[in-house]
Amino acid sequence: MVVKIVFKKKVYTKLNTDEEQEINRYIQIYIENNFKEPFEVNKYISFNNMWDLFPNIRSLNDHTNNKTIPGILPNFYAIVCKKLDIKGTGGSVLDKAEHY
Q1: How crowded is residue 57: how many other Cβ atoms within 10 Å of its Cβ?
Q2: What is the DSSP string of the chain?
């Protein structure tokens, strides 16, 4: 049975164990480093070559500013923001996210 989670009128499939562990690891990096925005976690993970620790939630994100940067898929980003009570910061618009 698939359970759905709803955040701000968007529906997401319930996390499996691996996804939940990766999100918790992502949040742990955020908290341990006193980051204020998720993009700081992405930079940290990239700088430390840690994306292999996030095979289920990682993505290459295309933004309107013509940049493709490593990050996490939008549904997982929404969950991270919800868990950390992060509101939108007015960053560049995400045009495309591709899992890799």
Answers
A1: 25
A2: ---EEEETTEEEEPP-HHHHHHHHHHHHHHHHTT-SSHHHHHHHHHHTT-GGG-TTTEEEEEETTS-EEEEE-HHHHHHHHHHHTPPP---PPEEEEEE-
Q: Are 27 and 80 in contact (CB under 8 A)?
A: yes
> pTM surpassing 0.85?
no
Q: How far apart are CA 53 and CA 15, in angstroms?
A: 17
pLDDT in tens, 8-67: 455 556 899 999 999 999 999 999 999 998 899 999 999 999 999 999 999 999 987 778
Question: Which residue has 């929404």 as its token pair?
Answer: 78
**Total length of the chain:** 100
> Domain boundaries in the chain?
17-99
Backbone angles phi, psi at 10, to 5 degrees: -105, 140
